[in-house]
Specification:
The protein is mainly α. Helices cover 77% and strands 0% of the residues. Helix 1 crosses helix 2. It is rod-shaped and about 70 Å long.
Length: 74
């Protein structure tokens, strides 16, 4: 699909240099960049990353709590 977009000159020139350095067409570079942006910013992906972070944090918190409480006399 063809799409017309406006890109700031500085970004356009950097993208042109990158496409040349990677031996890719402008279309291929923009398509890959957009696909990566959509993948990393999708609501589902963000939710998964947030859940994974919370899971890691709660595991670390539980371990710290256990360690502290195991020293207490009841």
């Amino acid at each position: 699909m063809k799409v017309a977009i406006s890109v700031p000159d500085a970004i356009f020139h950097k993208a042109e240099m990158l496409a040349s350095a990677l031996n890719k067409s402008r279309s291929q570079l923009y398509a890959e960049a957009l696909a990566n942006y959509v993948r990393t910013h999708s609501a589902h992906n963000i939710t998964q990353r947030t859940n994974a972070t919370c899971e890691r944090e709660s595991t670390a918190l539980a371990a710290a709590q256990f360690q502290i409480l195991s020293r207490e006399t009841w």
